[in-house]
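Schema walkthrough. Field components (list of strings):
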Amino acid sequence: MPEFLQFAFMRHAFVATTAIALMGSLVGYFVVLRRQAFASHALSNIGFAGAAGASLIGAEPMLGLLVFVMGAALVMALTGREMGERDISVGMILMFSLGLGALFINLYSANANAAIGILFGSVFGIDADQIRWIVVVSLVLLGGLATLFRPLRFASLNPEAARARGIPVRTIDTLFLLLVGAAAAIAVPVIGSLLSFAIFIGPAAAAQAWCPRIGAGLALTAALALTQSLGGLVLSYYANLPASSCIGALSFGCYALSRLTRRFA
Amino acid sequence: MADNPISAAVEARGIAVGKGGDPALSGLSFRIEPGSFTALVGPNGAGKTTLFESILGLIAPRNGVLRVMGEKPRRMRRQIAYVPQASQFAHDDALVGREFVSAAFESHRFGVALPRARRRARDAVDAALDTVGAGNLADRRLSTLSGGQRQRLLIAQALVNRPRLILLDEPLSQLDPAARDWVVSVARRLTERGIAVIFSTHDVNPVLGACDRVLYLAHGRGCIGRVDEILCEATLSELYGTPMRVIRDSGRRFVFEGGQTSPLAEAG
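Field assembly_structure (string):
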């Protein structure tokens, strides 16, 4: 066993990160395909307000985060007309939530560390209970994604033809946003809301630049996400840097490489 | 019976369709046969899209009877393929043609396709690409394709589920003349397989040689018949309710309203 896996906190971090990297990046593949990166980013950040609000009323921050994110996903689905046209409503919802978060922290001046921790994540502070929760929810969400796979794929690529074929495009869109919301809620305490792009968007965007097939693209997405996030953990351990920063840097580097190689390909 | 060979692909008897207020179309009757090519012509706002939506069962007619292959439209959705305008696509730039076409295959089913279904999908995609002559586009990224090539892939995508009726929504808009001829000949080829094609266009000239009949919509009303029956001054004057002129020039037709000097629709 490598040296860094001798510590329980490292083993926990590895398991949690593996689950979140696989689930988050595969959900993220469809986020990128549907050009909903902004909605995904907003959902990750909205959780911060929920966690702060829950701390304020003495509830479990995770619960507040989940309620806020799912509520916001639902509002986005109901207010955004068509996919790709909802940037403004998403931005307004995000702005309002962050304002609420700032208010909650201001009111709850005693100890806002739990909420602040959500912004950057605390991958090395995960206990065994949380791991179980993260793994189970990740598997459920992957199952949901697999269930929606065929209608979601068609509705993403050709929504009008899908609607004509009787596929409930609006319902699929809502379910997918809820899926993204749940994925963000589970990933944010680990990777951090500000850095969720590293898992949700970075690997999928690089994979789509390199691989023009969906099946192979999904496999590449998962492989990149695992490499970057576990690589980030190891790097963080040996270089004594924050894990989120390392994962973010690897994700960014890989994305930049994909843009460069595509441009000169 | 849906499979009754004598039932029309689409039959409308006195339908009125619209989403609110005055119906966009009223008193419309027509019959479209399997394996026929119908040009759906009319100026913008004449109700072409509304008619498509009612054939797809997305809006129910307020009056009259509308049947698709002898059944209510909603029940026949899986037999119909709708091809939207190609200009709307931006989401798929990263994918290759084959991937785009195959996305439609059995897309109403939940879950991931099993290996057997994937083999069937591959065969259906190959056949569809072959039908529209787009085999060479299978491995090209969509971002590298021209408008006409994208339109072919859209038609191929519509074919993978073996529809019996295809609705093409302004497939010629924003195409150059050579690409227009391609798309028209691809659509004509589909009728040889017994597929009924309804081809909406504001310019009838590119499809004059290919279409069996013209369904002309104007002012919320419509009439159907052979090209010469419809694109003549008597029929169009009655439809528009005002004197119309039809000018023929080297095989093309242009429709003018009364004393106006610019054509209403290019030939429409």
